[in-house]
Design a protein that fits this description.
The chain has 227 residues and is mainly alpha-helical. Among the domains are: 88 residues; 56 residues. 59% of the residues lie in helices and 0% in strands. It contains 10 helices and no strands. α1 packs across α4. The two termini are 16 Å apart.
């Protein structure tokens, strides 16, 4: 099985699992549906839309299996290319789509504890106040150098949180996309935004970091003649 066949087959399986969950969600009322997971903004799909999506996915998966059995690797590559072009050229912002259902409920927010009651001001007599004023002694001012170091110490102690590392699978996927786009004539500055638009790819900043870290490998593979 070619890499394109594996990617398309995995994508279709994920979409089918999502459609099956939407079939179960049809029994929920509006409030239950809204809280079953964190949804993007969309119009809730109706029964016939969900059933139509399932029928077309099953049919497309059957075509993919038939072409794969015949050794036709170009079919999966064409599907992947069409998905990219649809995202890049054909699609406009719409609310009527079937969002990916994962079956994972949104994380519950931690309830905040009750606020602490304000402390009551202590009453003091005139004699006590006078003794407190006499007991206060001004502290000597710290040297300018020591003060600067004391202020700089907490700032230096703060560490910048490290970005989460991309998995090997995500890195390999982004590298493969970049090699393919370069072989099609795409310019290097356009790679990050183009790859981030594809389905199941990371956000553009993460794609850009992967491209920078593996630029030499990507350019070498893009210049290599096909087998």
């Amino acid at each position: 099985m070619s890499a394109a066949n594996e990617r398309i087959a995995e994508l279709l399986d994920r979409w089918l699992a999502s459609v099956e969950l939407h079939s179960k969600y049809l029994e929920l009322d509006g409030e239950q549906y809204a809280t079953v997971q964190d949804w993007p903004k969309h119009q809730r799909p109706t029964k016939w839309v969900v059933e139509l999506a399932r029928a077309r996915l099953v049919e497309l998966k059957r075509h993919l299996d038939e072409r794969q059995a015949k050794g036709d690797a170009a079919f999966a590559e064409s599907l992947e290319l069409m998905a990219f072009l649809t995202t890049l050229l054909g699609s406009e912002h719409i609310d009527r789509f079937i969002p990916l259902a994962t079956g994972k409920a949104p994380a519950a927010a931690t309830p905040a504890g009750p606020p602490e009651p304000p402390a009551e001001p202590r009453k003091s007599t005139g004699d006590t106040t006078t003794k407190q004023k006499l007991a206060v002694r001004p502290r000597p001012a710290a040297a300018s150098g020591q003060g600067s170091r004391a202020k700089a110490a907490p700032a230096a102690a703060k560490s910048v949180p490290a970005r989460p590392k991309s998995s090997d699978k995500v890195i390999a996927l982004v590298i493969s996309d970049a090699v393919r786009f370069l072989s099609w004539g795409r310019e290097w500055p356009q790679l990050a935004s183009s790859i981030a638009r594809l389905a199941d790819r990371p956000a553009e900043p993460e794609v850009l970091a992967i491209l920078r870290a593996h630029r030499a490998e990507i350019e070498a593979r893009a210049r290599r003649p096909p087998d």
